[in-house]
Amino acid sequence: MTASAVPITSASVQDFYRELKNISSWWQQHAVDKQYGGFVGEIDHLAKVVANADKGIILNTRLLWFFSEAALFFRDELKDDVQQDRCAALAGRAFYYLLECFDDPQHGGVFWALDYKGHLLDGKKQTYALAFAIYGLCAYYKLTRESQALAKAMGYFQLLESRALDTVNGGYCEAFAADWSPLQDMRLSNKDDNLPKTMNTHLHVLEAYTALYSANPTPATREALARNIRYFSEHIINPDNGHLRLFMEMDWQDKSRHYSFGHDIEGSWLLYEALLVLAEPELLAGLTPLVIKLAHSCLSQGLSGNGRVLEAYDFIEKEIDPCSDWWVQAEAMVGFLNAYQLTQDTEYIKAFEGIWHFTRQQHLDRENGEWHWLALEDQASKPARYKAGFWKAPYHNGRAMMEICRLLAAMPAKEQAAGREQLAGASI
Fold this sequence. Notes:
Elements: H1 10-30, E1 55-56, H2 57-76, H3 81-102, E2 113-114, E3 120-122, E4 125-126, H4 127-144, H5 147-164, E5 175-176, E6 197-198, H6 199-215, H7 219-236, E7 237-238, E8 243-244, E9 247-248, E10 258-260, H8 261-278, H9 281-301, E11 312-314, E12 319-321, H10 326-343, H11 346-362, H12 395-417
Antiparallel strand pairs: 1-2, 2-3, 4-5, 6-9, 7-8, 10-11, 11-12
C-alpha cells in the first residue's frame, strides 16, 4: 500500500481541531443558565433557548464529561489556554450542579429530571444515567484530581453493583423507582422496548467502567470491567451476523426486532477501548475479531450511497430507516478509523472520508452553529429537532473530534512499526 492510497490530508486534521473548537465555543455561549444555575434544559434548532424547559441528567452528565475532556485536550494537545480555562470552568459548573441538584441524598444515585429551576420532577433510577454520572465524574477527576469526584463515582459504582446487578444471570437491570424498588415501565425512552436488559445501557456501563478502572484501578473495578466485557462477548454481540442484540429478557433471551448500525460501530470501538484499558493480552487477541466484525457489519450493510450511515434495519418488517442522525455519523467516523488501524483495510478510510464529507454538508449548521440532529435532506419530511436538550449534548460529536485527532496522530507510528510507509499528511 502506498501513502497516496489513503486520502487523509493534514488540512482535514486541522478541520477536526477547528470543529472541536466550534462545538466547544457554541456550548460555552449558549448552554449556561445564568438565571437558575447549571445549564438550560433545551435550545431549539435556531439556537434559541426554550423557556422553562426541564433539565435532564443525561445532558448534565454529558456536559460534565465533555467540558472535562475538552479542557484536557485543549491543554495537552492544542495548547489553547483560553479554551482550556473556559472548558474547565464549565466542567466545574456541571460537577457542582450534579452534586447540588441531581444527586439523591436519601436513596442514593441520581435523579432523572428536574424542572427549569432545579426542583425534582422525576426521581427514577435509570442504570444508564448512573453510568453517565460515573463517566463524567471520572473525566472531571482526571482533569482536577478532585477527590470528591472520584469518591462520588465510586459510590455510584457500588450502588450499581449492589442494586442493579443481576447476580443470577449477570448483567444490569434497566431501571428502578426512586427508592430502588421495582419499576413497571423500565424504558429509557419512548422508542425503546420495555424489557429488563438492553444493549444501550450495557454499552454505557462498559464505557463508564473503562473510565473508572483507568481512574481507580482496584481489584473491584477491574473485575467489574472484565465482567462487562464478557457480557458483550457472551450475550450481547451476535457472532453469527456481527450485530448487537438490542433488547433482552432477564435470562438474556433476545427480543430485538432490528439492528442499530450506529450502535454497532460505536460498540466496536468502545469495546476495543475497554480491552486496551483492561490490558489482558489473551482476551484482547481473542475478542478483537468480534470488534472487527461489528465494524464490518456497519461497513457492509449500514452505508448509503451518499456517504451517510443509516439509522437501523427492521429485520422483522424488512425495512430500513434511512434517516441520518448526527450521533451515528460521529460514532461511525471514530469506529471506522479504529477498524482501519486494526485491519489496514482502506475501505474503512474511504467510509470515514465519505461520512465526514456528508456530515459537513448535511449536519454542520453554518448559520446557527452546532450540528443538526437530522441531516438537512431528512428535514423535508421530518421536523428539525433541538440543538441541545435531554438527548443532545456535545458528547458524541465533541468526543468524535478528539478521538479522530488522536487516531490520526497515532497512525504514522503504527504504519512504520508494521513496515509500511507513513500515511501522507497524517502526522500532527
